[in-house]
Amino acid sequence: MASASGLLSEEQFLCSICLDVFTDPIATPCGHNYCKTCITHYWDTNDVCLCPLCKKVFYKRPEVFVNTFISEMADQFRKTQQVGRNSNVNQKPAKTDEISCDFCTETKLTALKSCLVCLASYCETHLEPHQRVTALKRHKLIDPVKNLEDIICKKHDRPLELFCKTDHKCVCQFCTELDHKFHQIVPLKEEYERKKAELGKAEAEVQQMIQERQLKIQEVKHSVELSKKDADREIEDSVQVFTALISCIERSQAELIDVIEEKQKSTEKQAEGFIKELEKEITELKKRSSELKQLSHTEAHLQLLENFPFPTINNPPPTKDWTQANVHQSSYVGTARTAVAQLEKTLSKEMKKLCDAELRSIQQHAVGVTLDPDTAHRKLILSENGKQVNHADIKMNLLDNTGRFSKTLDVLGKQSFSSGRFYYEVEVKGKTHWNLGVARGSINRKREITLNPNNGYWSIRLRNGNEYHALTGADVVLHVREKLQKVGVFVDYEEGLVSFYDVEYRVHIYSFTGCTFTEKLYPFFSPGFNIGGKNSAPLIISPVNHRD
Predict the structure, then answer these.
(1) Percentage of the chain lying above the pLDDT 70 cut
(2) In the chain, how long is the greatest CA-to-CA distance?
(3) Four-way CATH pick for 1-86: 3.40.630.30, 3.30.40.10, 3.40.109.10, 3.40.50.2300
(4) Average pLDDT of the residues of the chain
(5) What gap in Å lies between CA 548 and CA 546, rounded to an integer?
C-alpha cells in the first residue's frame, strides 16, 4: 500500500470540497470522488444536486457508497502526509483578532488565504494543494476574510463576483442568467474600483472642505488679532487724546481761575491801601478830637485862653478828600467765554489731528475704481481710462440696456463690494453741481428716484456752487470750511457705515451710520448738467495720496 501511494498522484487522494485527504470517499455517477460528509452537506445546502467539479446536475439525488479501496489508499496517504505537517514549525497559532484556518484540527493556525470556491480559509499547510493541484489552482483566492458566507449568493451558492448596476446589488453568475438577465452587469472588481475612486474623490473633496474651513478659522483668528491690535491702538490713541484734552481743559480752567483771582487780589490790594490811609487819618482826627475835648472841659478862664491854640484851632489835620475815592470792582464779563473760545481753538486743533489720523487709517483701504460705460446715461461722456465723467449736450448713440440709467445723469463704478471696507477719492474741483456716494445694485435705473437710503442711495451733493447736503430723506445741511476740492468716500460693509471726507483739509464731512447692507454696493457718480459751461468740469476718480 505504501508503494502504491508513492506511485499515485497526491491530487488523487484529496477531496475537492474540503481539500483534505479523503474520509469515507464516495464516487458520483459522473466519476468524481468526494468525502461522504462533504458531498452530503454540499447537496443538503443547495437547491439542486450537482457535481462541484463538472457541474453536472442530478435531478434525483444519487445513491452513494463508500469506496473501500480508495479509503484504504487515502488512510495510508494521510499517515505519510501527517509526518510533513508535524515537521512544519514556522506556523503560529491564530490570535483572537485573526482569521484562523478552517481545517486545522487541533491548534488553529493563522489563515493566509480564503477561497471563494471552497468557502474556506487556509493556513500555509492546508493552502498548499491550491498552489499545486491543477484543478485547485483555478479557484479564486483572496486575503483571509471572516464570514465567507456573506460573499456567497444565498440563492445559488456561488461567489458574488458581479455587480448589477440596475438594481445596485452584488450578484453571482447564475443571477445574471436569471433574475438579472437584461440588467447592466459589470465585474465586482470593476465596480469596486469605480466606487473606490468615487470615495477617494469624495474624501478629497471633504479634505479640501476641511482645509478651507481650517484656513477660514485661521483667517477669522487673524482678523480677530488684527481687530484686537486696532482696538488696542485706538484705545491707546484715544487715551492719549483725551488725556491731552483733559489736561488742556484743566490748564484752561486753572488759567481762568488765576486771572479771576489776580483781579480779585488787585481789588483787595487797592482796598487795603484805602483802608490804611483812612485809618491813619482817623488816628490823627481822634488825637485832635481828644485835645479839643480836654480844652473844652477846662473851667479856668485864664488857663483856657492862655492854652487855646488860636492859630490852629480852625485848621483840622491834613486829610484827603475821599468823596470821589472808590474801590475799582474788577469786571469778569467775557472772561470765561474768552477762555472757552481759546479752549475751542485748542480742541479744534486736536480734532484736526484726530481726523487726519482717521483719514490716513481709512486710506489704507483704497481700491481701484473705474466707471462702467454700460450704466452711464447717454448724455454722459466717459474718458477712455474710465476715470472721468461730465455732461454732454447731445445724446450718445448707445444701446439702452437694462443696466443703463435712462432718466438721471448717473453712472456706477464697474467694481462692486459685498463685504469688508473700501475707500476712493473723487476730484470735484471747479463744479457747481454733483452727487457722490454708493448705491445698491438693484436700484431702479429707468425712472427718476429720490436719492436716499430707503431707495438704495447713500450720497452727498453740491447745488448752486456752495450748498452742500447729505441726502438722508430729510436732507441735512453740511457746513464745510472751504469749497470742497476733493471728496473721500469710505464704506465699512459689515459696520453699516458710509463716510465722506474733505481730503484737502483732512476733515470729516458726514457719515451714514447704522445702515443695513444686504446686496452688492457700487460707487455712484452724477456730474450734474453742464449749465451752459458753468458746470462743465468733470468728476475725476483720482489716485489716493497716502501720507506718512
Answers:
(1) 90
(2) 200
(3) 3.30.40.10
(4) 85
(5) 7
